[in-house]
Amino acid sequence: MALWVIRILFLSLCTLGGYAISQVQPSLIENGFYGTLIGFGFGGFLIAIDEMLKGFSLRAFSAASFGLIVGSLMAWMIDRSELFMYADEKPTRWIIRLALFTGFGYIGMVLAMRSNKEDFSLIIPYVRFASQHDSPHLWILDTNVIIDGRIADLIESGFIEGKIIVPRFVLRELHLIADAADPIRRARGRRGLDILSRLQRNHKQEVKIHDADFPDEETIDAKLVSLAKSLGGRLVTNDYNLSKVAELQSVSHFNLNELSNALKSVILPGEVLSLRIVREGKDKGQGVGYLADGTMVVVNHGQPLLGQQVEVQVQSLLQTGAGIIVFADLKNQQPVLQT
């Protein structure tokens, strides 16, 4: 809203400026009406350009400026050489110079905008630019961890401090999932967008949509690893395969599933637990229940007590890739009535 107030003020100043010029310099503009119209058109034209460039960040502008300078320097060096010494006619030489500066300027801008800060360090060795005020902790979120939603609880509770980075290519993937024909996939995508909106409403942490892209990388996972490596941030995911790829490339990562498993309560054989039998087990007579943290408990002879609250005694534990499975026996054959 504040941006539009500034735009309206700027448009008003341009309109008044056009009218003032028509009064001070009638030779330039014939009357006040034309001056007002020209001032209004000039201000509207600049606002339209501003609206078209709203996704153009300061980093992209700096990179484009640097690329334009490098491209212009290359064009000037070629122009000063004797490569076109036989083009003596002024119109021909002007066309050659126009093509050189336009072509090399465009190529320089495109290459600079596609590059990351590691590429610039090759041009200016041993120099690193770092902000004095930004937090050194950068958390780069992948698509799955946004859809999962647990990251929002961690951020709101203050366990994660620093700047939250959401790459624009992840945002595009979320939009594609939200527009999918499959209703389950579409619901997942919309949940991810809701979680992202929730993160942006949280004023405790800064959430930034990062515009960097890596055209040479084909998959989203490869782009995420390259971005984390480029920014020196920590990749947040719940994808086991992505965690392993990041680990192999020495990229700092944070897996929510590993954190969840590490925070589960320690259960020892002989301990008594209270839970509800919610379904039948794999073997005959078994019942299955779940603890508050999601740990699955297989209860021997628990099938007849399906849907009831019971007390069980832990007999053994089985560690699997998905977590711990607890095997238990009924402590009392009669169900424990809830009060």
Structure overview:
The chain is of the alpha/beta class. Among the domains are: 1-54, no CATH class; 138-261, 5'-nuclease (Rossmann fold, 3-Layer(aba) Sandwich); 272-330, OB fold (Dihydrolipoamide Acetyltransferase, E2P). The protein has helices at 2-24, 32-52, 58-80, 90-114, 117-123, 143-148, 150-156, 168-178, 183-201, 220-231, 240-248, 256-262; strands spanning 138-141, 163-167, 206-210, 234-237, 253-255, 272-280, 287-290, 296-300, 309-320, 323-330. The strands form two sheets. It has a five-stranded parallel β-sheet. Strands 6-7-8-10-9 form a five-stranded mixed barrel. Helix 11 (240-248) links the parallel strand 4 and strand 5 (253-255). Helix 1 (2-24) packs antiparallel against helix 2 (32-52). The radius of gyration is 31 Å and the shape is elongated.
What's the layout of helices and strands?
Elements: H1 2-24, H2 32-52, H3 58-80, H4 90-114, H5 117-123, E1 138-141, H6 143-148, H7 150-156, E2 163-167, H8 168-178, H9 183-201, E3 206-210, H10 220-231, E4 234-237, H11 240-248, E5 253-255, H12 256-262, E6 272-280, E7 287-290, E8 296-300, E9 309-320, E10 323-330
Parallel strand pairs: 1-2, 1-4, 2-3, 4-5, 8-10
Antiparallel strand pairs: 6-7, 6-9, 7-8, 9-10
Helix pairs in contact: 1-2, 3-4, 8-9
Averaged pLDDT: 80
Order of helices and strands: HHHHHEHHEHHEHEHEHEEEEE
Specify the CATH architecture of the domain at 138-261. 3-Layer(aba) Sandwich
CATH topology of the domain at 138-261, anyone?
Answer: Rossmann fold
Q: How large a portion of the residues is in β-strands, by DSSP E?
A: 15-25%
C-alpha Rg (nearest Å): 31 Å
Q: How would you sum up the global shape?
A: elongated
Low-confidence parts lasting 5 or more residues at pLDDT below 50?
124-135, 335-339
Work out the helicity level: 40-55%
Please state the structural category: alpha/beta
| Major sheet strand order | 3-2-1-4-5
Main β-sheet: number of strands, strand sense, barrel status? 5 strands, parallel
- Record field, number of beta strands: 10
Determine the N-to-C terminus distance. 55 Å
Quickly name the level 1 CATH class of the domain at 138-261: Alpha Beta
Number of helices: 12
Relevant CATH superfamily of the domain at 138-261: 5'-nuclease
